[in-house]
Amino acid sequence: MNKIALIFFMIALTLGCKSEKKEIKIDRDKDSKEILKTIDNWNEGWDKKDVELAISDYSKDTDWTNAFGDRMQSKSELRQLLTEIFAMDFVMNGVDNYINDDVKFLTDDIALLRSTNIRTGQKWSDGTLMNDRYIHHLRVFQKIDNKWEITNHMISQAHEKK
């Protein structure tokens, strides 16, 4: 009899201890818009030579590599590099034309953003005009404290195929 009572007690205890999971509603449309806004912040920061705006969406431990192989492994390093770049007038010439923005959610708090920028009118350090640049960006986002932050950013450039 004691064994039967113990079995019923264990069953009741098990059923009573089940916790209900809270369902978190994910708004992918809102998240996508927030992620895509980072391109606007980046571009506006470049247009205004405003380093803080350009890096406003990066995590403090971001890992950033540009098409020339320069790698920065923190927001602080990226701030320093952009401060130097924004002082170079020849780099700042040109117009950005983003196309093919594509957001893909890997999990509820990890997303990828692929984009292509066709940069026209940029110049070399000697003042001569560059050919149009087809620059590809792959940004990895993580939702940190309810804000999408860029944790990794890889920039590559496609050259004309012959």
Provide structural commentary.
The protein is α+β, with helices and mostly antiparallel strands and 162 residues long. The chain is 35% helix and 33% strand. It is built from five helices and six strands, in the order αααββααββββ. Strands 2-1-6-5-4-3 form a six-stranded mixed β-sheet. The longest helix has 21 residues, at 28-48. The protein is globular, with a radius of gyration of 24 Å. It starts with a helix and ends with a strand. The model has no long low-confidence stretch (mean pLDDT 85).
Report a brief summary of the structure:
The protein contains 5 helices and 6 strands; from the N terminus they run αααββααββββ. It is of the alpha+beta class and 162 residues long.
State the helical fraction: 25-40%
Number of strands: 6
- CA radius of gyration is 24 Å
Percent of sequence in beta strands: 25-35%
Biggest sheet strand order reads 2-1-6-5-4-3
Terminal Cα separation, in Å?
Answer: 87 Å
Uncertain residue segments: none
Structural category is alpha+beta
What key phrases describe this protein's structure?
single chain, 162 residues, alpha+beta, 6-stranded mixed sheet, 5 helices, 33% strand, globular
